[in-house]
Amino acid sequence: MPAPKDVEKKIEALREKIRRHEHLYYVLDDPEISDAEFDKLMQQLKSLEAEHPSLVTPDSPTQRVGGKPREGFVKVSHSSPMLSLDNTYNEEELRAWERRVHELTGRSDVDYVCELKLDGMSLALIYEDGKLVRGVTRGDGSIGEDVTLNVRTVRSIPLSIPKERLKKAGIPADFEVRGELLMPTASFKKINEEREKNGLPTFANPRNFTAGTVRQLDANVTAERRMDFFPYILLQGGRTYFDRHSKTLSALDAAGFKVNPNHKLVHSMDEVWRFIQEWEGKRDSLPYEIDGIVVKVDRTGLQDELGFTGKAPRWAIAYKYAARAGITKLENVRWQVGRTGKLTPVAELSPVSIGGTTVRNATLHNMDEIERLGVKIGDWVQVERGGDVIPKVAKVIDDKEHPRGKADIEAPVKCPVCGTKVVRTEGEVDFRCVNANCPAKLAGTILHFASRGVMNIDGMGDALVTQLTERGLVKNVADIYKLTKSDLLSLERMGDKSAQNILGEIEASKKLPLERVIYGLGIRMVGERTAQFLAEHFGSMEALAEAGVEELQNVNEVGPRIAESIVEFFSIPANRKLVERLGEAGLAFKGKKKERGTKLAGKTFVLTGTLAKYSRDEAKKMIEDAGGKVTGSVSKKTDYVLAGADAGSKLDKAKELGVAVIGEKEMEDLTR
Ligand code: IVH
């Protein structure tokens, strides 16, 4: 039987009231009623909904908790890539970024917005008709995981925004918000302490904790661990909606999101620098961790002009604060073997708390660094921890209170894992284990292959890979595709469901494009970007495997050293066999070949000013498709400067050096 209309109205009114109080409490931090009064309203709503279950909607405030534990997360594509940021570490680098902004836009009067760089994880929220329909993690930037149920439990995320409110804020009914999900330091400490007491593993820092929490299969756990969400991007159809970033922030605030109040619109780099210095002193007073400041070009038009490099926009930059440091004793040094066979010295330390994280290990990089530091076992050392880098030993403390250690750190003679004699090539700093079958190398190779940016086999982490390699179930990456459910079930801590999930992930990885497979092979010096260029150039694994050093150097960004490394890889029969087996397993060996013309081969272009007919990216693409190359600054090697309106210093430089200056028309002629 349908519920009477008046009940429906009553429920909706009650929801509106609760939403208003949630906003006052969780977003504005300014409650009007007591917790008990709030609970009473919630109780009323719950009992009405219990009486009329057909009226329960996903955006009801009662739906923030609960849901049965799920078996896994569904993968979702992002409307546009979720990017990361390039970093700067000092004023000089920041000013160099500003110069680049001036150069590329041809303007010197650029407004910036300064924001805190929140140390959480980025998250995308999709709203349809004003209602939250999906929450997606960043994932690899193109594909994330649907964590909607978990996201719903975050109180500062509105589940539903009234139409009038959106209208007033100038936001359309269908939109996407991106921002930072984070764990306040106090919750982090409290939960970690409880876990320690209960003998559970603790989280290293609030960021890892946030990531672990939002991916809880049981959303009830997420609900208990009070997290917060600060938005900073508003999109519609994958594109920035407002013409200024500062407008985005005020509109999001007006719509009821918790915009971080500590941001500022400024008109010069001097003001940016003041903001950075001011917050360096105040960062410890915040209830959550920040690791720097983000500076963004305010005007969307200029943002579009500046575009992107690889995975980061040119219109924004992060300024990272100096690492936090602590002093502790160096107890021992062990040598760790990586996937390329490289041995890295790891300092084993007396545990020390640095900025809320317990540090037990730190890197010493290599033998040269050990000599430079003059460090001995037993020394007191200063250890530094940055936001996302591994802690490192920065210096030896040498004063009256800290007696010096005595024992020298010996260079390694044998691989600590397989016992093979290590080698150090003339002129290289690193020691390497050259045993192709060294189990440490194998584990590293498998981990790289399965990692997120490569074949994205979720669940195939350290613990699993160690077991798989130790038991001989996986002797190379192709063996992954031979694993059966009973193989997996024979491992420790592996249930039926997890085994099934991992098999599903392995199967799904077969659909990933050719460039990922190339990257996954772990060829020395072939990173993500190079793998992409190789895939585009050759269009198939077979063609790549047959290519010679000459041909390889025709590929964008491939020089003689990389070319030789690729040829060497494919010259080893075991590697060829491995690649063949990956093909048999059904991995993508064909890709889309990107035909590049040769008309402009060897010609270098620089773009400046605002073009009338094409966007910068379009012009760049036209030039590259014709075989030309686009670089950032004008030099004697530049063949053409393509200048649009308001061209700045680059045009002057071109004239000074006598470089040909062309317009869009000439570019069209050249590329056709
Ligand atoms: S803007 C295209 N703003 O930092 C712009 N990011 O190191 C991309 N982050 O992945 C992000 N605070 O998770 C932006 N105020 C802020 C931020 C912020 C923290 C994170 C974000 C991003 C990472 C890059």
Description:
With 672 residues, the chain is of the alpha+beta class. It has five domains: 5-63, Orthogonal Bundle (Helix Hairpins), CATH 1.10.287.610; 87-320, DNA ligase/mRNA capping enzyme (D-amino Acid Aminotransferase, Chain A, domain 1); 324-397, Nucleic acid-binding proteins (OB fold (Dihydrolipoamide Acetyltransferase, E2P), Beta Barrel), CATH 2.40.50; 439-584, DNA polymerase, domain 1, CATH 1.10.150.20; 604-671, Rossmann fold (3-Layer(aba) Sandwich). Helices cover 38% and strands 19% of the residues. The chain has 25 helices and 23 strands. The strands form six sheets. Strands 2-14-11-3-10 form a five-stranded mixed beta sheet. Helix 1 (5-27) runs antiparallel to helix 2, helix 13 packs across helix 14 and helix 17 packs across helix 18 (528-538). The termini are far apart. The model has no long low-confidence stretch (mean pLDDT 89). Bound molecules: 2-(butylsulfanyl)adenosine (IVH). Residues 83-85, 115, 117-118, 121-122, 180, 232, 294, 313, 316, 318 line the site of 2-(butylsulfanyl)adenosine (IVH).
Major β-sheet profile: 5 strands, mixed
Per CATH, which architecture of the largest domain? 2-Layer Sandwich
What structural class do you assign from the helix and strand content? alpha+beta
| Ligand types | 2-(butylsulfanyl)adenosine
Determine the number of helices (DSSP H or I, runs of at least 4 residues): 25
| Strand residue percentage | 15-25%
Mean pLDDT over the full residue set: 89
Name of the level-1 CATH class of the largest domain = Alpha Beta
Major beta sheet, strand line-up: 2-14-11-3-10
- What is the radius of gyration computed over CA atoms, rounded to a whole number of angstroms? 28 Å
- The CATH topology of the largest domain corresponds to D-amino Acid Aminotransferase, Chain A, domain 1
Poorly predicted ranges (pLDDT <50, ≥5 residues)? none
- Determine the N-to-C terminus distance: 69 Å
Summed up, the domain count is 5
The H-level CATH homologous superfamily of the largest domain, spelled out, is DNA ligase/mRNA capping enzyme
Q: What shape does the CA trace take?
A: globular
